[in-house]
Amino acid sequence: MDLKGKNVLLTGGSRGLGPVIAAALVKEGCNIALTARSQDSLNTVAETLRRSGATVVAIQADINSAENRKLLVDIATQKLGQIDILINNAGIETAGAFQKHTAEEIELTLTTNINSPMHLAHMLLPEMLERQSGHIVNLGSLAGKQGSAYDAMYSGTKAALIEWTRGLRSELDGTGVSVSVVCPGYVSDVGMFASFGVKPPLLMGQSSPDAVASAVVKAIRKDRFEILVNPLPVRPLLALNTLFPAVGTLFMRLAGVNKLQKEKVGES
């Protein structure tokens, strides 16, 4: 897909990876509708992006609200025109021992990380299919490929997002509409992992926010199903884990991932 002139709806646009992904898409010539719950932060990001001459719309909305989702799509369409690309970037990491999470935390994580992306795609797909053109990118995680201790709920929602992407992509084959998933490992400087202020295990490494944004652009341009973003090769390890799950679990412990997860959430 040629991205120049395409209209993009991007969730989680006020902080973390959102502004970085938006900047990469603007550089490609896209028009962007950014959404998040914080209007002030959205306005700041939008003003920065507009300096390059791009058309950027900031729409305050809570994607977990059905009413807000409808309003979001309506306003984005009114301001930009047809939505060519949906980037489901918004997500939350409810880290910690699973049994200590409240019922409300479980519900919020499920709704934000998997239910809302599905609903937004469901709203935008009919027009994409009618035009026989469109692309959806879901922000997954390597945690969805290999679950992490003290991140079981986050890992589970990202695994669901990855497999939903796989199934929907197969379903849409030949329609002109496609779906991709980008799965970062540990990301530096911004985002969920960076907010904890801990260093990743040496055997896992750490990627830059720009590397994730580049992967999003590549996923759309090249119509890739899945892009893993990590400085060290992880596909062989994931393949090994699929064949021998116990080996994958042992590697996570020996690589220091379990120890890091405990450190991250303050577990003894």
Q: Which stretches of 5+ consecutive residues score pLDDT under 50?
A: none
Total of domains: 1
Tell me the CATH architecture. 3-Layer(aba) Sandwich
- How much helix is in the residues? 40-55%
Q: In total, how many beta strands?
A: 7
Largest sheet: 7 strands, parallel
Order of strands in the sheet with most strands: 3-2-1-4-5-6-7
Write up this protein.
With 268 residues, the chain is an alpha/beta fold. It has one domain: 3-Layer(aba) Sandwich (Rossmann fold). It has helices spanning 17-27, 39-50, 66-80, 103-131, 152-171, 209-221, 235-243, 245-254, 257-265; strands spanning 7-11, 31-36, 56-60, 85-88, 134-139, 177-184, 226-229. A seven-stranded parallel β-sheet has the order 3-2-1-4-5-6-7, sandwiched between helices. The chain is globular and about 50 Å long.
Summarize the structure.
This protein is α/β, with parallel strands linked by helices and 268 residues long.
SSE layout:
Elements: E1 7-11, H1 17-27, E2 31-36, H2 39-50, E3 56-60, H3 66-80, E4 85-88, H4 103-131, E5 134-139, H5 152-171, E6 177-184, H6 209-221, E7 226-229, H7 235-243, H8 245-254, H9 257-265
Parallel strand pairs: 1-2, 1-4, 2-3, 4-5, 5-6, 6-7
Helix pairs in contact: 1-6, 3-4, 4-5, 7-8
Which structural traits does this protein have?
268 residues, alpha/beta, Rossmann fold, 7-stranded parallel β-sheet
